Amino acid sequence: MTTPPKPLSLYAFLRPRPERADEVRRILTSFVEPTRQEEGNLQYHLHEHEDGRFFLYEVWRSQEDLDRHNALPHLRAFLDHLPEYLEGSPEGYFDTMLSPYPGSAAEGS
């Protein structure tokens, strides 16, 4: 029997250019609900820190689900132009979730 993949978490900090902060906020906010409806998305949260940085926290069922998400045209349009929107590079981390995700196939493994 094959063990199902453990969920993958992604968390990232994005510092928008001051003149583009409202636009970045609008774009990132527009991603929330559609992403939550995607197959394989377990969590998707957007936060705004008091210093103006945005913080994304995502949990995906698998790397394949995240790859499919990242290939969507509206997301590619944003990701392909990140330097125009951000001061510096995003600070991002990908990790395998060790604690079982409630209700996932990985729970109990």
Automatic annotation (TrEMBL):
Domain ABM: 8-94
Domain of life from the UniProt record: Bacteria
Molecular function terms from GO: catalytic activity
Record-linked InterPro entries: ABM_dom, AI-2_Isomerase_LsrG, Dimeric_a/b-barrel
Protein name per UniProt: ABM domain-containing protein
